[in-house]
Amino acid sequence: MNILDQKFAEFHELPTEEKIEYFSKNGRLFDMIISQQLNREIIDNIYEITNRIRHISKTRAGSFFLQNILFHKRVMLYFAQPSSRTFLSFENACHILGMKTSEIRDARVSSEVKGESFDDSLRTFSSYTDLIIMRHKGQDMAERAAWLMNTRTNRPVPIINGGSGSDQHPTQAMLDVYTLQYSFAKQGGLDGKTIMMCGDLKRGRTVRSLSYLLKNFEDVKIIYAAPQAFQMKEDVCSFLEKHKIPFHIETEALDNVLSEADAIYMTRIQDEHDAIAGESGKTDTSRFKLKPSDMTKIRPSAIIMHPFPRRDEIDVAIDSDPRAMYWRQERNGMWIRAALIAYIFNVHEEILNY
Is the pTM of this model over 0.90? Predict the structure, then answer.
């Protein structure tokens, strides 16, 4: 283990509250690494910024205004793990704000294939750009990138986590919360709602991040519906208990709890994290898939969500049901990420005052 590995290991063992301080500058959000960084004030602020950007962009003059907000900034999209929606939504969010983008979408076309370290690659990216948005299959790599920028370089640039291992995907959680707030705007908002999450909860970074983010809302209840082999890990459950957020674990069948949910968040099995190929297939997941016949059990006011990609956990026939919000949820990603970038660069007041 080299000296950087040792120093990062020490940092990684710090309590979450202490690590969050490293991701801020002058009391402001600098990096976006984990959902625990966000409080209700920031969430509501970004929600408002998102709505303003959507509204302003509808006109040619508004779009021109937005494209001049950050036209002097450059972004590196470092996606060392396959991605469709997250990459495209971030790329287009940057374009909305006029930012110039560079990209590496496969580590095999970077100098890492020659043996360059992750740390040296990140420092190289920071030499040319003002923001690094990254996705990596390795656990805690976004956290390492932010630690590196904030402690080991004289030119720190913000890091946004676009998905790191099976740990967290905070911007997905932000767009999920935005979708929930938007969908329940006429029903008192997200406060007081029951959110059900179904699928591979153990390795699903989207549901882990969303669980952390829900602590910012009042009287929220969570239902985790999955076979025991894919149930939520103890760290998230302990977090919910600490913050007195009630949750129920369902391991028998999805339809046992469908009628209780205001939002049903479906996810696929994350078999890319299998230690042995085909390992996930040994668990029967047939009772945790959403079928057209299940729709009669779901509340008329409820919504159905999915972070994509999907396989067969939601029947395509459900796409035409007005409660299916996953395509709108997908589109929301571009807008919320544009708002987040504007917030990090502290230009959001210009947008709000337009």
Answer: yes
pLDDT in tens, 121-147: 999 999 999 999 999 999 999 999 999
246 cis-preceded (ω within 30 degrees of 0): no
Instruction: State the Cα angle at 167 between 161 and 171, rounded to 5°.
Output: 35
Q: Indicate which residues carry an active-site annotation.
A: 85-86, 114, 135, 169
Q: Tell me how crowded residue 148 is: count the other CB atoms within 10 A of its CB.
A: 22
Q: Which of 239, 257, 238 lies closest to 248, judged by CA? A: 257
CA distance 70 to 99: 6
The radius of gyration computed from the CA coordinates of the chain, to the nearest angstrom, equals: 20
Structure tokens of 217? 């809302």
Q: Answer yes or no: is pLDDT of 340 > 80.
A: yes
Listed in sequence order, the residues at least 6 apart from 191 whose beta carbon sits closer than 8 Å to its beta carbon are 217, 218, 219, 220
Q: Which domains does the chain have, with CATH numbers?
A: 3-168+333-352 (3.40.50.1370), 170-331 (3.40.50.1370)
Q: Looking at 114-118, 256-260, 346-350, which range is the least confident one?
A: 114-118
Could you give the CA distance from residue 238 to residue 251 in angstroms, rounded to a whole number? 18
> How many CA atoms lie within 13 Å of 317's alpha carbon, on the beta-carbon side?
8
Euclidean distance between CA atoms 224 and 195, whole angstroms: 9
Tens-digit pLDDT profile for residues 164-190: 988 899 999 999 999 999 999 999 999
